[in-house]
Design brief:
By secondary structure, the protein is an all-alpha fold. It has 10 helices and no strands.
């Protein structure tokens, strides 16, 4: 009987992929987002994107679930109550926009915004706390949901908004991880509906998951000794890098 799937892992490739995933999820453990920015392009050197994207979404869902379930008691339910439904609406709008908007121009505009905001956040100091929940929770939730389905990058709008709402870094990180879980779960469902979530992607994610969890553990312990200002600087660097990567995607 033929086996309907295979995993293209030889030992050397597996070790390289494990190192990439472990390092990327150290960042995730610190900030609660950003791992896919490193895993997707790096793993694409070894596998086609049709393999990498679903596998990385599964890793992100598992990582967000692990982080969120452990620290969900710290999440701000008031923010989630407004952001989560708007994120779902945004995800639907993002799928619709895929066939109507000029994709390259849209990616470039979003990337430029994130790049500029990342620069601003790095040099302007800690953002002021206290912006209004309404309408910004609605806007950030919608934009994050739409960006997740349009570009595969949904967390930056959530991070920008929550960093200006939540003064406690534990609450910020826990709330952000819950929104990332929602965003990545939506993408996983889209891949599943599209027939991309087949067995070899799932097994690849299972084989790499221990290294992702190890990276989260290390990142969590690093952020325990970091101040909120340091966490926000790391988020600013991530926004800068994500914006730059989207701009480069358009230029290639």
């Amino acid at each position: 009987m033929d086996i309907p799937f295979h995993i293209p892992f030889d030992l050397a490739t597996y070790i390289a992929c494990a190192a990439i995933v472990g390092g990327a999820y150290v960042i995730f453990g610190i900030t609660a987002f950003g791992a896919a920015m490193f895993t997707v392009p790096a793993l694409s050197y070894f596998f086609p994107l049709s393999f990498v994207l679903p596998m990385c979404v599964l890793l992100d869902v598992s990582a967000a679930l692990a982080l969120g379930s452990r620290f969900s008691k710290n999440a701000d339910r008031g923010e989630l109550k407004w952001m989560a439904p708007c994120s779902l609406v945004g995800a639907v709008a993002g799928v619709t926009a895929l066939v109507t908007l000029p994709q390259q121009a849209t990616i470039a505009a979003f990337g430029l915004f994130l790049f500029c905001y990342g620069l601003y956040s790095l040099f302007a100091g800690a953002p002021q706390i206290g912006i209004a929940r309404h309408p910004w929770a609605v806007i950030s939730g919608f934009c994050g949901g739409a960006a997740g389905t349009l570009f595969g990058v949904g967390a930056p709008p959530y991070a920008i908004y929550l960093s200006r709402r939540l003064p406690d870094k534990a609450v910020l990180r826990a709330t952000l991880s819950n929104m990332v879980l929602l965003s990545t779960s939506i993408r996983a469902l889209v891949f599943f509906a599209g027939g991309l979530m087949i067995a070899d992607r799932v097994i690849g994610a299972v084989l790499l998951l221990p290294f992702a969890l190890g990276g989260i553990w290390a990142g969590h312990h690093i952020q325990l000794s970091a101040s909120r200002e340091t966490l926000l600087k790391v988020i600013g660097v991530l926004l800068l890098l994500i914006g730059g990567s989207l701009i480069l995607r358009v230029m290639r």
